[in-house]
Amino acid sequence: MIRQMLSDDLEQCEAIVRETMGDELADAFARNVGGEEFDGKPYRIVVCDKYNQSLVLGLGGVVPDEMSLETCWVAWFAVSVSAQGSGIGDMLMRRLLERARCQGYKRIYVETYDRPEFRRARVFYDKRGFKPMGWLEGHHPSGKGSTFYMGMEL
């Protein structure tokens, strides 16, 4: 089941970000997402277990780009390690792309990193049509590694 992210989901979402992206990004998630009022905002969603709808298995969002009305970003896309390979990531990404198209966006981008633990994420995005757009050296929150940008036309 896919539904809007609620404040009650934050602890589980942060744990998923921590296990898939590391401590630095989990801390950034807690500061940036946990620090705002967002119940009812339509751009953040979670995938829940079909038998236990309070168990979050994945998360993501579509966030407007501040520079272009036709562009948006995939934000905080992550699937629990225990649920990876089950099709949840595909389902979640399809929903995010569908939302972006329905909202009239023409382009969508995703931010990932060049560190080895993000290799699977880069392959995942590539298989779904995202293409390399560029990178910023030393832009990982730890200061070690580069931010890698991928994008696609919708």
The dominant shape is globular
The CATH homologous superfamily corresponds to Gcn5-related N-acetyltransferase (GNAT)
What fold name goes in the CATH topology slot? Aminopeptidase
Low-pLDDT segments, ≥5 res: none
**Rg calculated over all Cα atoms:** 15 Å
Classify the secondary structure makeup into a structural class. alpha+beta
Q: Using DSSP, what is the number of strands?
A: 7
The tally of helices reads 4
H/E element order: EHHEEEHEHEE
Indicate the proportion of strand residues.
Answer: 25-35%
Write structural notes for this entry:
The protein has 154 residues and is an alpha+beta fold. It has a single domain (2-153), classed as Aminopeptidase (3-Layer(aba) Sandwich), CATH 3.40.630.30. 30% of the residues lie in helices and 30% in strands. The chain is built from four helices and seven strands; from the N terminus they run E-H-H-E-E-E-H-E-H-E-E. The protein has helices at 10-21, 23-32, 88-102, 119-127; strands at residues 2-4, 44-48, 56-64, 71-79, 107-113, 131-136, 147-153. The chain has a seven-stranded mixed β-sheet with strand order 1-2-3-4-5-7-6, with helices on both faces. Strand 4, helix 3 and strand 5 (107-113) form a beta-alpha-beta unit. Helix 1 (10-21) runs antiparallel to helix 2. It is globular. The two termini are 24 Å apart.
